[in-house]
Design a protein that fits this description.
Layout (H helix, E strand, L loop, with lengths): L29 H17 L9 H10 L18 H13 L6 H16 L2 H13 L4 E4 L15 E4 L5 E11 L6 E9 L6 E9 L5 E6 L9 E11 L4 E2 L6 H36 L11 H29 L3 H30 L11 H6 L2 H4 L4 H12 L7
Parallel strand pairs: 1-4
Antiparallel strand pairs: 2-3, 3-7, 4-5, 5-8, 6-7
Helix pairs in contact: 1-2, 1-3, 3-6, 4-5, 4-6, 6-7, 6-8, 7-8, 8-11
């Protein structure tokens, strides 16, 4: 029995010199491993010098043509027939290559999933083929100025007119990509005729609908996907703008929110891997004294720790995706929140350590890491803060009393 610290053996000597950690894991099927490798190659072809220096439209079109945008959508509507597990691989690998597509979280993952599960046949035929081939894009509107993470305080209301039309009134904030979306899936509330209480419902609002106004929010984060405040001033919609049942309530809402959390985890893991790879490469070649700086434990150990934490976050993300794709919504809800939390924390630490590894170079445009200091915080804040996830786990998983 060996008491040494080496991780290699004669049969498995460990990573060869000059290699960097890859995204492949032994628990993946051959098909998923092949998908991961193919998407990684696509990302390398389109990557620029930083997370913001790439042609988003060209990459979106290429990913659509290869079937990656619709990999989780039903085959009968032009999709790949896979699940959120496959879609998360696509986003993670593009992020690890330095060219993430944030709208993948919104358009195919949230909106595509909701429509595929709850939409009418007409809605599926209208939207899913376009979401799969990239010709259509949907945004998702849930957050409100005074509601924050409390979906029960949503004030956007929908009332039915005598002719069957709906009138939507309300405000939304921090809605991504409305300018590039053909429509926005809006979370509103309708009145229950039996109880008089408001319940959540989902409506497809076309971009050019009268009374549907958008104002861009100026952000410090430089990203192709802009953030908007929306105003819905008696936006009139036909009866078939309602997605799913008027009585489904939170079931339909969380059908989209669980994939959102899983995909946010994929986004964060990809970003963390990108930053870590930059730092590892630098640490192997940067020489100040006799040996490259990566030989010093003060540099090597924090990078190794970041790699471990990113791998652990991916395992939880894969568990969440497996539960969701198997139809276990309650189990997926817990795992998706945990995955999002773990990935957000791992991403922030990986970016921070990568910048420190490069020292002053970590703050230059040449190396493209400094902008990630701000961008990495997104996964801690959106779509739900880490504090709310801790609240969820404390009272849902551990059975502790609620404080709110």
């Amino acid at each position: 029995m060996s008491t040494g610290t080496s991780t290699g053996t004669a049969a498995n000597p460990g990573p060869a010199a000059g290699t960097t950690p890859t995204g492949n894991t032994p628990i993946e099927t051959e098909e998923r491993a092949a998908l991961r490798a193919a998407v990684a190659a696509l990302g390398r072809r389109h990557a620029g010098t930083s997370h913001r220096d790439y042609d988003r439209q060209a990459l979106w079109a290429a990913a659509a043509k290869l079937g990656y945008l619709g990999v989780s959508l039903p085959e009968e509507y032009g999709g790949g027939g896979g699940g959120i597990a496959e879609l998360s691989i696509v986003l993670e690998e593009l992020g690890a290559a330095g060219c993430p597509l944030l709208m993948m979280v919104v358009s195919p993952a949230i909106c595509g999933t909701v429509i595929a599960r709850f939409g009418t046949e007409a809605q599926k035929k209208r939207w899913l083929p376009g979401l799969a081939d990239g010709s259509l894009t949907l945004a998702f509107g849930i957050t409100e100025p005074d509601a924050g993470s409390n979906s029960h305080r949503i004030t956007t209301t929908a009332r039915r007119e005598s002719g069957g039309d709906w009138l939507l009134t309300g405000r939304k904030v921090f809605i991504s990509g409305v300018d590039m979306a053909d429509a926005t899936l809006i979370v509103g509330r309708t009145e229950d005729a039996r109880t008089g209480r408001l319940k959540p419902c989902l409506f497809l609002v076309p971009r050019d609908a009268p009374g549907f106004q958008r104002t861009q929010i100026e952000m410090e984060i430089q990203a192709p996907e802009k953030q908007f405040e929306l105003v819905l001033d008696d936006v009139r919609l036909p009866a078939d703008a309602l997605v799913g049942s008027e009585d489904a309530g939170l079931l339909q809402l969380f059908a989209g929110l669980n994939p959102e959390r899983i995909m946010t985890a994929a986004f964060a893991i990809g970003m963390g891997r990108y930053a870590l790879a930059k730092a590892v490469d630098y640490a192997k070649t940067r020489q100040v004294w006799k040996e490259p700086i990566g030989s010093h434990q003060a540099i090597a150990h924090p990078l190794a720790q970041s790699h471990i934490e990113l791998e652990l976050a991916r395992l939880m993300m894969q568990k969440a995706a497996a539960l969701y794709d198997a139809g276990d919504d309650p189990g997926a809800g817990e795992a998706a929140n945990m995955a999002k939390y773990a990935a957000g924390e791992a991403c922030v630490k990986a970016v921070d350590q990568s910048v420190h590894t490069l020292g002053g170079n970590g703050l230059t445009r040449e190396y493209g890491l400094a902008a990630l200091i701000t961008a990495s915080r997104v996964a801690r804040i959106a779509p739900v803060s880490r504090e709310m996830i801790l609240n969820f786990v404390s009272h849902q998983s551990l059975g502790l009393p609620k404080s709110y």
